[in-house]
Protein 1
Amino acid sequence: MRYSKADRLIVIGAGITGLMTAINARLSGLDVYLLEKGKMPSGSSARIAGVLHSGARFAGWDDELAKVCFEEWKWWVSVLGKEEKKIGGYFLKTKTESDQYLESWLSSLKNIGIPFTEVENPYIGGDIKKENIDRFYFVPEIQINARKLLNKLLELAINLGVNYLPSSVIQEVERADGGYRISVRNKDTLKLEGFPVISSGIDIPEVAKIFGINVTSKVYQGSHILLNTDLTDLLEFVHKPGTYDLLIPSDLGTFITPTLVPYNGLTVSEEELAGLSQVLKNLFEIEPEVIGYMIAGRISISSPDSTLKGDYLAYTQDTILAWSNNYACGKRLAYAIADILGIKKALTAASLISD
């Protein structure tokens, strides 16, 4: 398919997927409008704890997704400068976890090519109960400041000529030839005509409804809980990704994430805090004080059907819906959207590196 109506793309949502899509489309020569409901990118992409996964997190559980992550990880390594990233972290095999999963995990890492090194006694913070840990594996994950990265991408998009419309509210839409006429309230009311890409994260069902598209989905919250620990490196556990299995040092303390539970209005429940408390007792000599939390959201979309394994992408009713299951996969989705639109895959590492 090739969209011809003024070659204009209207991207709704300025998270990682929306920004990478807008940048690629603009580099490909399209006129691009980027709509964001906040003044700056403010959804889940801005509130993640800040890890671009190498794929090790999914190895042994979903190797296909792990391979996708590793390819994106290698690309981001070439994009991010030293001041924007910290490479490295440890996967922990606790004494209560199964050896069977460890063997599967290590086998998958080798098959995929994700580098790892077993380490005898790393320093990862003085409060860790090392007697409860059986193995340490160093894996080159990437830590980033998500908000800074998004702001850099937004600045690049604007410099390329993307028309950024913050604080935007879609008031009305109607079908046009090969696209839509969209009435947007910003500072003024604008009438835009073009092809829409809905990349609004957990708000995809709500935005899609305006376009007459029914999205069947389930929304989860991910609570990033802030602790006062002295961790020095990213820590994960060697087991199937689930609850309370990722600890990330930050400027403010340590985030433990995700605690994925059904959406309940973006609040941390008593059950979450109780589960977190048990994990902390098993891992730390002195249970860290919880000094705050932040919320990110996730969405599982079952309809319309995705055309992309590992992430979510659907083309329906002259509209594209896009959601990245892994933060690092914004480029992958931007390229897949380019395929649907019949435009160039112009986004390269060089195009994201500023002088």
Protein 2
Amino acid sequence: MKKYISAIILMAVVSLFAGAGLRAADKVTVRPGAGISNVVVDRIGRNMNVNMDVDLTKVNIPGNKAYLLTPVLVKGDNSVELPAIGLYSRGSFLQYLRNGSKLSRGETMTYSVKNMPPSVNYDVTVPYESWMNGCELVLRQEQYGCANCKEISSTSDKLGGFRIKTFTFSPDFVFARPEAEVTKSRSISGQAFVDFPQGKSVVNPDYHSNARELAKIRATIDSVRRDKDVTINRIYIKGFASPEGKYSLNEKLASARTTAIKDYVKNLYNLSNNLFKTDFVPENWDALRDYVENSNLPHRTRILALIDDDATYTDLDAKEWKIKSTYPDEYKNLLENCYPFLRRTDYKVDYTIRSYASAEEVEEVLKTRPGNLSLEEFYLAAQNYTPGDEDFNKTFITAARVYPDDPTANINAAMAEMQEGNLDSARRYLRKAGNSGLAAYAKGLYAALTEDFDEAWDYFRQARSEGVREAQDAIDQLNYRKELLGL
């Protein structure tokens, strides 16, 4: 059962919006004496709502005059006119009735001095647009004379506005404690192409490129042998020969050459013969097939069919002769470009690393030989630091580099990167995080931090169902966000 540690950091500030209006006691008087109060500008879901009270008790309109009051939401070069209020004198109202023409097509509330109510509540909703963040509400006042001729136009100061209110997503970053390894067993492997003179099976370091190939084997062994904390348990050596010539001869050569390389390594390091395990393949037909399959040989398909035909050609010498005699040009190509690489030596070193008992020892190994640490030891090393600080996060990121395919290592590295705000890096680790409840929780955090809240919701619900208790708090935060947005 994995144990978790967590660190809470305020990470994502998601912009939400709420109205900022005048207080109930505030009132602004505009032409022709209308009083504006209780202004609220608010976003409701996908719409913008403007609500205000318009006091008409002190409106004074000279004869044959009319006024158009048009609320306008404005920010920079962007604006939207809201439905207007038309206020008419007795004469201008009679003209309106006779001609059926309002002051503006956007006028939706029309009153004459004769039937004007004491007050009206203005309540209008328009589609929300992104530019409305930080917009202001003003009132344009226009005076009209006879024949609806505009005479005076002015704009009020700000009546209300739309301010930004922030919702801060506060993720709880959860780190899993990996299971302890009873024995830290590791292996390192490679390939070398040690060449031998025809018919010989003695290692000659000066022959062809043998110096370089033998150096590869030595470097592999040296990389673990020089570490005082490492114990070598087994060295595997497996030799391969190419198919040309008699199978019986190839079998003898493959065995003898494998033994020769084993003896070279054993004598070089003065190792016990019991430490070695050897094997050999007389003719490396599998690698030959891979080469042909990925080649552009003219008769590639037919040669592949011959290689795969074990029923007809039970004798490998006969099969090799068939390819050589039927496709001599392709065979020459194989001899020059493929067969040298079929004659190879695979080697592997199995070893164990001792465990580290103290936090100080683990911290030292982390700095010098991080590959020696188990995942649990990386976890213990992180406990020497403050959750969320640079060294804490770096420890988990290093663990994922040492164990690139381990789901727990990738979850913890993703958590660390998200703590530092490195979301692109976190996304790469999440690809290898697996499908556990904690992996779902980590993916939910990434989705929330990138403002994909629908996907985050799904991941958090999955994590909650699989026992990640921190998922409930994340769900509660998303619910609160919905309330603020009116979703």
